[in-house]
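Deliverable D4.2, example record:
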Amino acid sequence: MQRIAESELIINSRGAVYHLDVRPEELAPTIITVGDPDRVAKVSKYFDSIEHKNQHREFITHTGYVGKKRISCVSTGIGPDNIDIVVNELDALVNIDFATRTIKPQLTSLQIMRMGTSGALQPHINVDDLVVSTHGLGIDNLLHFYRHQNNEEEKQLVHAFVTHTQIQDSLSQPYIAGCGSQLLKHFVEGYHHGITVTCPGFYGPQGRVLRLGLMHPGFVDRLTTFAFGNHRITNFEMETSAIYGLGKLLGHQCLSMNVIVANRVKKEFSKDGNAAVETLIKKSLSIIEGI
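Output generated by the structure prediction step:
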């Protein structure tokens, strides 16, 4: 088996993967990712016990138990570029032997579940509602750095999306990846289901105008009106497609859950976003404990 060089997989002096500063034994097989580093403690306060706490830059990890379920909560920071770091390092912790720097012969498949905030793109999805992403549709370009291939239905969906949004000449070719079906079946009651579009920024890429004009001023409206069979775009944010795409390629089960803090169609924003996030955490944790 080929050895992975020190420059490609950086392991620090305490035997932990570089960015996360986590050792293999400090990671649970079920992982909750959150964008905000402060949200890790908001999740882990519901743990019955905490074994490990690690922090390096914006990456904070708490590992412990909810009942008999061992869980790690990891902050990713914002954006697909950070997801590239986090998902690759999570995978390395379980599928690469740090002593020999070689890939383990047997795959360990993680459960990776995002708890985030998002903007709704449909009028019937209200602020403070919960959305689970059946697919992540990326306009962020990350997955194009890896070998990947969509199935025929996914290719048709992407083609329909490009045709409908008219972005083919000025933005990266979109990509799409589905969620982990073994996880999705547990998150039905109380959650909207639909496609989540992942953007490479918060302002222009999500159609916000401050002082700069937009290349595609009607982009948000086209996302709202897009349809492909029974599929609709429910929301957009900045991480889901990267998690789904990398997770699928690496053999992990992934799911993205978001609380809606803004409805971009109705121009509304949550009056208490912190309380809405708390609802997402408590409801989703109670489900995760039983999976």
